[in-house]
Amino acid sequence: MIKKTIFAILALSICLTSCDSWVENAETPSNTVTREQLNKATMIANVQSNKLSDGPLVANVRTLQGTAAAGVFLALGTTVDELTEGTIPNTLLYRQIVNDNVTPRSGTQDGLWDQLQNYYARSKELIEVAEQIPTGNAQTEISKMYGQYMGHLHAGYALQLLAETFSSTPETGDGGVIINKALLSRQDLYTQANEHYEAAAKAITSSVMQGFNGIDRDAAYRQIMTYELKLSIHQGDYNRAATLIDKAINNSNGNIEVIYGNDGGDNPLYSAIGPNARNVQVSPSLEAARTSSAMVKALPLKHASVDKQNPNRYNIYAAALTRKGALVLTDIDEIHLIKAELIIRGLITGNALNEVNTVISQYDSSSQLTTAPSLNDIADLRRIFLAFRGERTADIRRGLEQGTIATTWQNRKIKWLPMPERELSAMNM
């Protein structure tokens, strides 16, 4: 496992691809890797006959994905009714989101913006390094193609996270996001994200990878298709989602997650909404929404006292999260719920009741539904079983969630986070 210090050095020193002004103006420290050292196949992966392990560049991008995704999930969860400010907070961002007064000049969102831009920059950089490595033996060619697969996959996800989190017009989201000092519309970002996903799929299914047994190509391909599926769902493009659902992960491929074990850091969600959380907590509304035994078991929540003199002052925390546990981006539960939704919408054939009960029965068979689910039922199930992944915000934006929360959302002043003032100012320079 690559040490965190190496991650930090690489993040500071590798500036081949720029994403905004702070990246473009960064200077490379003299005590870090050179361009010649960087353009080595082993920086991407170590390849043996039937074994592949990540090199420093890929390992760094994987870590940046988890950090950026967790930051987005927390911010989006606070924007809706999933998370709220902690009882004894120290972070102004969550307070400003809850109070609906985040502004470009507040500076509270700068850290998340920088994480996302850095994640995107390092992903694009991985693509460039892979392309520039000289042609060599079979192992080198596999490293090059693996780098393109991983680089494009993560560049696409970084653009998707940027599009779903920030906007130059946060009141309506009609604006865009600044990439390389250019303001790109949300649709442009989604289009580019899909192009990266397709490039990743092309790389992993290439002739170079076909003869190599050191990676599960089918699982990798299905994971890419799952990223595309989720993006289609978030956009409300259900016809396209219907073409992707059978290509997504299944019970044979497992979940899509980021590991923070061994020498890595803690699961960022655990640090934020675990038992020692103070800045942000699970909302009472989400706690109350667990209306069945299955929901309570799927989303176990507990109260942590923050004031021994006043036991009524407590934070609600997610009890299932562990310090070194994986950060889950997608799992099989989500695929079953997407299938059920597409069946209800009349876009694929199947039994929606069976799909949702497959999810519910994992936790408590007595909580299974007895009648065919509606879209409202799907919204309720997704809220609990897919908590803390940014899906709640996506469901409200695409209109799946109706009622009071949808009205509250429409009445919000800030529906996306505003980009930092320094980025908006850079556009006019």
UniProtKB/TrEMBL annotation:
InterPro entries associated with the record = TPR-like_helical_dom_sf (IPR011990)
Signal peptide (residue range): 1-23
What keywords is this UniProt entry annotated with?
Answer: Signal
| Superkingdom of this protein's organism | Bacteria
Q: Which named protein is this?
A: SusD-like N-terminal domain-containing protein
Q: What organism is this sequence from?
A: Prevotella histicola F0411
Q: What is the lineage of its organism?
A: Bacteria, Pseudomonadati, Bacteroidota, Bacteroidia, Bacteroidales
